User: Which sequence fits this backbone?
């Protein structure tokens, strides 16, 4: 059975290969009611099938599915990637910004 993490990796690879996929608007995820939302401005899948997101400071963070509130980020990322997958033809976003 495929995990949501693997689904996200597969969609990123379908849309951008191992290139960076940037978002025109940040993916915002509130990890607790008392903190500012985490903003992801980009995503990439490594050749080792690891998933990374880029924050507002242009720093890349590996998503560890079973650590902390990663499931919140993964859920929101999955929704955004599904939207992009439906909106764009596969491989049309290589090295370019998305419109989502």
Assistant:
């Amino acid at each position: 059975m495929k995990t949501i993490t693997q689904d996200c990796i597969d969609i990123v690879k379908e849309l951008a290969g191992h290139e960076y996929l940037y978002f025109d608007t940040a993916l915002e995820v509130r990890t607790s009611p008392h903190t500012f939302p985490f903003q992801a401005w980009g995503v990439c899948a490594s050749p080792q099938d690891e998933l990374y997101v880029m924050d507002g400071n242009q720093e890349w963070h590996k998503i560890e599915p079973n650590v902390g509130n990663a499931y919140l980020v993964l859920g929101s990322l999955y929704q955004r990637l599904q939207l992009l997958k439906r909106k764009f033809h596969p491989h049309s976003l290589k090295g370019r910004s998305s419109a989502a």
